[in-house]
């Protein structure tokens, strides 16, 4: 985007939550986007952002001055959506997914593109579920969605669950290099910020591990099928060629989801040197387009035997890189390794900002 061009005004649905707060932090000084509208539940509506979100503000910066005094709107007050916003980020938590689906489609009906963190529409076939480095071409399903649902310029695009970020891009890089993957066994160690605010009670998580996160294992096993799929005539056609078995656990870490991954290839098995070279050299469309939120190195491999670690590595490349280490031979499958990604940045707000930049660069957001 030309430096002298006016920034696009944008809105945040669920602005008072953990992901919403991350948007506010990450969008400070963004070269293309400027926050105009903040919306949340009826409980927050009519209050200043400081009144509504102040008591639960978790970011390591003060609430920015220009945000503090914005009056929060009710997400469902469609009549007050400012008419100069170009799109909204959606990070709302509601009692049911159907309510979220309906709200996001209503914004689209009102001509507003919705870039969503919610899982509600991830399985709607004509809604793309995008990781910028893996399946940017899935944006081509947007015209199919608009035609089917009679949306003029609005649409819904989502990003996948935070739990899968630390292995989908590295696996995709290997597949792209011609090494077809057969099976994956994944065990995640997920941070508490992934549960939103106030999230997991402290007495449940301090000095403890919770070996269950509702719905997370199903998402981890299924979402890669859509991401690795292709655009068909009426929506995305899933690719079910990789079998995944996932165990998801909650650990006493604030930010950063870690995963232990065991991998079996279909036929050709790369050497360890090949794998590291593929990861080191991996670049994709967001890097080619030099998008503001694109990490320079989408996959970082650390040779230190005891890395990656959440506290030391989650912020690599502004929290947008996947950091990998401990690639070694497996006694049952071919190899195993550890992956780490920042759940509220790469896995939530940062990943969605990158998707918005991509959709802008491709002309879907104007
Ligand atoms: P959160 O901290 O619980 O925030 C929820 C937000 O939704 C708040 O702004 C809240 O507003 C709003 N909300 C609640 N009930 C509402 C209602 N009835 N109508 C309208 N707005 C309502 O949750 P979060 O962690 O930010 O997550 C938000 C979404 O992103 C969830 O779907 C989550 O699964 C997804 N996600 C989260 C992460 C993560 O790492 N945290 C990662 C990926 C995806 P009030 O403050 O007014 O109640």
Secondary-structure topology with pairs:
Layout: E1 8-13, H1 18-26, E2 33-40, H2 49-53, H3 65-68, E3 73-74, E4 87-90, H4 97-109, E5 114-116, H5 142-149, E6 156-158, H6 165-176, E7 181-190, H7 202-205, H8 216-227, E8 230-231, E9 236-237, E10 243-250, E11 257-265, H9 272-281, H10 285-288, E12 299-302, H11 310-313, H12 316-319, E13 322-329, E14 335-341, H13 345-361
Parallel strand pairs: 1-2, 1-4, 2-3, 4-5, 5-6, 7-10, 12-13
Antiparallel strand pairs: 7-11, 8-9, 11-14, 13-14
Helix pairs in contact: 1-13
The structure holds NADP nicotinamide-adenine-dinucleotide phosphate.
Structure description:
It is a single chain. This protein has 366 residues and is of the alpha/beta class. It folds into two domains: 8-161 and 349-361, Rossmann fold, CATH 3.40.50.720; 163-342, Dihydrodipicolinate Reductase, domain 2 (2-Layer Sandwich). Helices cover 29% and strands 21% of the residues. It has 13 helices and 14 strands. The protein has helices at residues 18-26, 49-53, 65-68, 97-109, 142-149, 165-176, 202-205, 216-227, 272-281, 285-288, 310-313, 316-319, 345-361; strands at residues 8-13, 33-40, 73-74, 87-90, 114-116, 156-158, 181-190, 230-231, 236-237, 243-250, 257-265, 299-302, 322-329, 335-341. It has a six-stranded parallel sheet with strand order 3-2-1-4-5-6, sandwiched between helices. It is globular, with a radius of gyration of 20 Å. The termini are close together. The relative contact order is 0.15. The model has no long low-confidence stretch (mean pLDDT 97). Bound molecules: NADP nicotinamide-adenine-dinucleotide phosphate. NADP nicotinamide-adenine-dinucleotide phosphate is lined by residues 14-20, 40-41, 43-44, 75, 91-94, 117-118, 162, 193-194, 196-197, 343-344, 347-348.
């Amino acid at each position: 985007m030309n430096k002298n061009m006016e920034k696009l005004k944008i809105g945040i649905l669920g602005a008072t939550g953990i992901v919403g707060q991350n948007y506010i932090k990450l969008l400070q000084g963004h070269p293309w986007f400027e926050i105009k509208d903040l919306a949340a539940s009826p409980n927050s509506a009519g209050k200043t952002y400081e009144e509504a979100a102040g008591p639960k503000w978790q970011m390591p910066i003060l609430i920015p001055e220009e945000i503090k005094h914005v009056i929060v709107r009710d997400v469902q007050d469609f009549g007050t959506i400012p008419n100069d916003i170009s799109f909204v980020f959606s990070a709302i938590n509601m009692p049911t997914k159907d309510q979220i689906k309906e709200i996001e489609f209503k914004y689209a009906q009102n001509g507003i593109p919705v870039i969503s963190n919610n899982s509600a529409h991830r399985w709607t076939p004509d809604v793309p579920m995008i990781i910028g480095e893996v399946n940017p071409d899935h944006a081509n399903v947007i015209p199919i969605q608009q035609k089917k649902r009679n949306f003029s310029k609005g649409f819904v695009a989502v990003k996948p669950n935070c739990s899968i970020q630390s292995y989908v891009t590295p696996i995709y890089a290997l597949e792209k290099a011609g090494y077809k993957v057969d099976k994956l066994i994944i065990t995640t160690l997920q941070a508490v910020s992934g549960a939103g605010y106030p999230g997991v009670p402290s007495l449940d998580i301090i000095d403890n591990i919770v070996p269950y996160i509702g719905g997370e294992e199903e998402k981890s096993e299924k979402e890669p099928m859509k991401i690795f799929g292709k655009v068909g005539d009426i929506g995305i056609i899933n690719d079910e060629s990789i079998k995944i078995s996932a165990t998801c656990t909650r650990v006493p870490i604030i930010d950063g989801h870690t995963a232990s991954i065991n991998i079996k290839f279909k036929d050709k098995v790369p050497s360890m040197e090949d794998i590291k070279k593929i990861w080191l050299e991996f670049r994709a469309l967001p890097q080619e387009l030099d998008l503001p939120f694109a990490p320079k190195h989408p996959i970082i491999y650390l040779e230190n035997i005891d890395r990656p670690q959440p506290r030391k590595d989650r912020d690599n490349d502004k929290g947008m890189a996947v950091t990998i280490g401990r690639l070694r031979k497996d006694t049952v499958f071919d190899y195993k390794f550890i992956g780490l990604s920042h759940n509220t940045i790469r896995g939530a707000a940062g990943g969605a900002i990158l998707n918005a930049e991509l959709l802008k660069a491709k002309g879907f957001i104007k």
